[in-house]
Amino acid sequence: MTWEYDISSSTALIAVAAVTTLLLKYLHGHNPLHNIPGPQQTLFVKGHIDQLFNPQGASFHQHLADNFGGVVKVRGMWGDEQPYVSDPNALHDILVKQQDVFEETSWFIVSNELTMGKGLLATTGTSPDPVVLELSSFPGTQHRKQRKMIGPFFSMRHLAEMTPLFFEVVSKVRDTLMLKTRNGPQEIDMHHWMNRTSLELVGQSGLGVSGPSSEYALMRLVLAGHSFNDLTEGAKPNEYTAAAMGVPSARFKLNLYRRMVPYLVRLGPPRLRRLLVRLIPSTDVQRLRAMVDIMWDTSVRLVASKKAALEQGDEVMLQQVGRGKDIMSILLNANMHTSESERLPEDEVIDQMSTLVFAAMGTTSSALSRVLHLLAQRPHIQEKLRQEICEAWEAKGELSCADLSDLPYLDAVVRETLRLYAPIPMVTRVATQDTVIPLTQPITGTDGKYMKEIVVPKGTMVYIAIIKANRDPAVWGPDALEWLETPPESVTKTQYPSIYGNMMTFIGGGRSCVGFKFSELEIKVVLSVLLQSLVFSEGAQDIQWNLGGVHVPVVPNSAMPTKSQLPLVISSVKQSMSHA
């Protein structure tokens, strides 16, 4: 039986949220954000939410970048006024100087806890939103405690040790693609393969699991004989792989309703709430619930197996896929030997698995797909990059993490892609108290007066406008909207609160992307292996990039216009040379 979504229950919830919001506005009086300019509001009920989160919403984000200053006022539910911020000084205050004031929103934290558990994306800093504190029962330092324990895995020293494993995994992908093109050029969905590559890399280096063979006894135990993510030709994703690949888009479809989650989780204990979720007549909700259950059950079994291997000693761990250097093995081992005050509860350790998969797969596969698409559109840049890579392979024989860092053109291509086409266009924060943030460049208010700072009332949701900051001509020069061979340097001394090349792709501060070096290394390894042997060209179908939690490629004029896919024509380098 196919359930259609019953809108009446949502209407009731929206009505309750509306009355609450309007009452709070009345009690607080005039909002100091009212004077900030912004686009015209179309619908009072949903404000600009549909435009900000629409799959085709990239044009609206660019409209905000082209027509407004470093702070823009957009509207949320019921006309709620929300700053959309790209001003460098304002971002520094939000993400660094006042990071304890600007926390993750309650709907972000609580919805992440429900879908991924109490991992790194579902914990708060030192001054949490009271709603989050009440619902999650987390001490404010839990995010920092988890980050401290996970951080060493993402150090350059550890990534250098894992680089051979990266090359081993990506070489399997190359071999499969070469096999597919053995009889000539073939059109292949590269987004599918980049998703599976990212999942296998986080599976082996992060979780210490992989596909089936005699040496993968752990994975046979965990998945009862099924492959985690077999990268050979003709292999189909198992249920865990399918679930991991499906969760981001499923969450995005329910994005509007995620904002009601902090209120919905008040409806009794977890057992009752789970029963109520099963009764919701929504295909999207039930699909997401099923995928979350699959990932949780697998995580529990995997962690139990890992703990058993750890207890058997180093000799057993060295025979595991990650050779005991994967993040789950490191995390479990560290947690077993740390002080009681620093130790993580076992359910939080289990929950890191889903968090790692979700965080490491979607964004990196999006970036990989984007750079392959760009190179297919620009064969001269692809060839120049291939030449640099091939010369490095010939000179070194094997490439290390340091060798990849020393390839300037590869670095330029990766950085420029991550600047202009950040996988995530924006993130959100909420002010936990009244505060003031300064501006680098004054903006002109709707009353015609200059504003050098903005007052942000407690409870205000703030958008960190990543795309707008990365494309600001005042910072990046007149070619800021062009993907260039040589990435533009900042044309001013203005510094964003960034951990990566003065761009906001991985943001900054205490909640910056802990795995950005992992992501960068993965992209460079994939390009250095695939471009050595394969040529990528555009196919006959037009590709469009949609928002789906992250940017994803689609073929709008195909039989499945909303399916994430990137069909590119692939041939071997030898085939291309013979036809040149």
Amount of beta strand: 5-15%
Q: How much is the average pLDDT?
A: 82
Largest sheet: 5 strands, mixed
Q: Specify the structural class.
A: alpha+beta
State the distance separating the first and last CA atoms: 55 Å
Annotation field: number of helices = 25
Radius of gyration: 24 Å
Backbone shape = globular
**Number of DSSP-assigned strands:** 12
- Major beta sheet, strand line-up: 1-2-8-5-3
Oligomer: single chain
Percent helix: 40-55%
Q: Which regions are unreliable across 5 or more consecutive residues at pLDDT < 50?
A: 1-11, 126-139, 211-228
Protein name: Cytochrome P450
Keywords: Heme, Iron, Metal-binding, Monooxygenase, Oxidoreductase
Binding site for heme: 513
Family: Belongs to the cytochrome P450 family.
Concise description?
With 580 residues, the protein is α+β, with helices and mostly antiparallel strands. It is built from 25 helices and twelve strands. It has a domain at 30-138 and 424-494.
Key terms for this structure?
single chain, 580 residues, alpha+beta, five-stranded mixed β-sheet, three-stranded antiparallel β-sheet, 12 strands, 52% helix, globular, disordered N terminus, Cyt_P450_E_grp-IV, Cyt_P450, Cytochrome P450, oxidoreductase
How do the helices and strands line up, and which of them pair or pack?
Layout: H1 7-28, H2 49-53, H3 58-67, E1 71-75, E2 81-85, H4 88-97, E3 102-103, H5 106-116, H6 130-136, H7 142-150, H8 156-180, E4 186-189, H9 190-207, H10 217-223, H11 239-253, H12 255-258, H13 261-264, H14 270-279, H15 283-311, H16 314-317, H17 327-337, H18 346-377, H19 379-396, H20 401-405, H21 408-420, E5 426-431, E6 435-444, E7 450-456, E8 461-465, H22 466-470, H23 473-476, H24 516-533, E9 534-538, E10 544-548, E11 550-554, E12 567-572, H25 573-578
Parallel strand pairs: 2-8
Antiparallel strand pairs: 1-2, 3-5, 4-12, 5-8, 6-7, 9-12, 10-11
Helix pairs in contact: 5-6, 8-9, 8-24, 9-18, 10-15, 11-15, 11-18, 15-17, 15-18, 18-21, 18-24, 19-24
